[in-house]
Amino acid sequence: MAGPSYRACKQCYFVTEGDTCPRCGGQTSKEWQGLVAVVDFEKSDIARKMGIAANGKYALKVR
């Protein structure tokens, strides 16, 4: 039994299961690498450096 097929947004890097990003409406891709889970974006140095302004799962690299 296969699990869900995750995709990452090409614009904001948000990881989702859909063909379009629920955050920004951008196109998603099956080709992505790395995963970072942001729990508190206001205190996260990584979120600040990546330009993330909401909690969630994000890809590090998207093609």
Characteristics:
63 residues, mainly beta, three-stranded antiparallel β-sheet, two-stranded antiparallel sheet, 10% helix, 33% strand
Summed up:
The protein is mostly beta strands.
Task: Report on this structure.
The chain has 1 helix and 5 strands. The chain is mainly beta and 63 residues long. The protein has one domain: Rubrerythrin, domain 2, CATH 2.20.28.90. The mean pLDDT is 95.
Structural topology:
Elements: E1 7-9, E2 15-16, E3 28-29, E4 32-38, H1 45-50, E5 56-62
Antiparallel strand pairs: 1-2, 1-3, 4-5
Number of helices: 1
Average pLDDT works out at: 95
Please give the share of residues in helix.
under 10%
**Secondary structural class:** mainly beta
Order of helices and strands: EEEEHE
The main β sheet shows up as: 3 strands, antiparallel
Gross morphology: globular
- Rg is 11 Å
| Strand percent estimate | 25-35%
Q: Can you tell me the CATH topology?
A: Rubrerythrin, domain 2
Integer tally of domains: 1
**Care to count the β-strands?**
5
Strand order of the largest sheet: 2-1-3
Q: Give the CATH level 1 class.
A: Mainly Beta
Which architecture name does CATH use? Single Sheet
Q: Which consecutive residue ranges, at least 5 long each, have pLDDT under 50?
A: none
**Distance separating the two termini:** 27 Å
